[in-house]
Amino acid sequence: MKTVKLLLILCLCMGCTRIDSKTQSIATDEVNPVKVIQQEAKEESDDLSASKGVIDLYISDNALDTTQMSYAIQDLETGVIIQSENASENFVAASVYKLPLCMLWYDKINSGEVSKDEPILFSAIEESGGYLEQDYCVGQTIPLSEVLRYTIVYSDNNGAHLLFNNLGGWPEFKKQCAKYSSHEQNDEFYSYENYLNAEYMCDVLKNLYDHKETYSDLIGHLQSAIPDDFLNSNTPLNMAQKAGWLYEVQNASGLSLDGHPYSISVFTTYGEQGKTIMGNINKICFDYFNE
Which of 7, 65, 118, 120 has the greatest number of C-beta atoms within 10 Å? Predict the structure, then answer.
């Protein structure tokens, strides 16, 4: 037996690639800016209903439209997805795609195919590029390890474009990164648009966790990137997360590195409110796994 005590306060208040009609508008209905949910639930250790019930209560109590969100939560010790919503539906990913992109390059480094000091030519400045162009000039070469660091820590679009272009372009990157999931992806996933889904990201995060020693540099970059926002917006948790934001799109996928290991991936089209939503859902998950 374990007791889960939840106190949630909902306070309403660099994106990447393209956005299109797939992205839905922000909800216009006013949501009470402060919602306090206190829930005490008891469950057997193998009963997942408590977590599901509390998340469902949070969603219904705040009148959230689930068509504007997708999430999946996985117990990393058992591999079981304990709760999900629209998990196989593709959403505009924003910069979340940079996590599997960088994993492909760490795989190449770990296999000896390339060196972490491999020189990458800074060939062009991309629109909304980021910090890389402030520190390097077009025509210079940059060590691969630095390109990877900028891409994750600063969500740098220049760095990401260099990485997928050196894999053969965007479609080739999507083809290669499909290897991280056992779930078959549709044509939309492989298209020139920037779509991912929570089910796929669960598999990516499980792979990251299962090989955390070989991805230690990447995990360190994920921890330092956005320590106080997105999945950490409700309370300061030790999440290794990759966030993505573009207009109303607010997404994050990450690993909990405190207590019982779990992963969570959330995609929303709720604008800034999306950060609060994912932070509150993540707090529910942390309490479920650790109290």
Answer: 120
Residue 26: band (very low, low, confident or very high) from pLDDT cuts 50, 70, 90? very low
C-alpha span between 174 and 192 (Å, rounded): 9
Q: Which two tokens stand for residue 126?
A: 């991309």
Helix ranges (DSSP H) in 154-272: 157-165, 170-177, 187-190, 198-210, 216-225
d(Cα 43, Cα 35) in Å, to the nearest integer? 25
DSSP state of 10: E
- Residue 63 carries which DSSP code? T
Q: What's the rounded Cα separation, in Å, for the pair 86 and 72?
A: 8
The partner residues of 3 in beta bridges, in order of sequence, read 42
Cα dihedral 181/184/190/191 (nearest 10): -140
Encode pLDDT of 94-147 as tens digits.
999 999 999 999 999 999 999 999 999 999 998 887 899 999 999 999 999 999
